[in-house]
């Protein structure tokens, strides 16, 4: 909820780069440091580390990536909320994985004879799904912890 509603960090329309940059002609600013400094789609200057999102159709401050799950950009303003969300989701899937393993170990062997719809079989399907979820979320979490430690965004790697 919060990540979706919270603005990822809009570039102020009046943003003008430092005096140094302003003295440079526009076409020379464009590829300074391998990074576009002027957004032609928004027709304004981009602060350092800001990127244009094609999906949101605007520039995002310290943009990390456009998240398809929340249909919003993850940037400067909502990065912490995003990270807490990932942390909670990872913890939840670890917890359900532990519950599943516990459930599987304690299930009665009789279930195996009761056919296709046995609780054990659905537990296995669920288990595989939770395993994949836990793995994906763990990778995502480790990846972002790595990025924070190196002060980088997904775009800048
Ligand atoms: Zn833009
Ligand atoms: Zn976006």
Automatic annotation (TrEMBL):
One Gene Ontology MF term: protein-cysteine S-palmitoyltransferase activity
TM spans (from-to): 81-102, 122-149
Keyword S-adenosyl-L-methionine appears in the UniProt entry: no
GO cellular component: membrane
Reactions mediated catalytically: L-cysteinyl-[protein] + hexadecanoyl-CoA = S-hexadecanoyl-L-cysteinyl-[protein] + CoA
UniProt entry tagged with the keyword Transferase: yes
Topological category with respect to the lipid bilayer: Multi-pass membrane protein
Entry-linked Pfam families: DHHC
Residue ranges annotated for the Palmitoyltransferase DHHC domain, each copy included: 35-156
Record PROSITE patterns: DHHC
Compartments (UniProt record): Membrane
Keywords carried by this UniProt record: Acyltransferase, Membrane, Transferase, Transmembrane, Transmembrane helix
EC number: 2.3.1.225
Similarity field: Belongs to the DHHC palmitoyltransferase family.
Domain notes: The DHHC domain is required for palmitoyltransferase activity.
PANTHER family cross-referenced by the UniProt entry: PALMITOYLTRANSFERASE ZDHHC16
Designated name of the protein: S-acyltransferase
Originating species: Aegilops tauschii subsp. strangulata
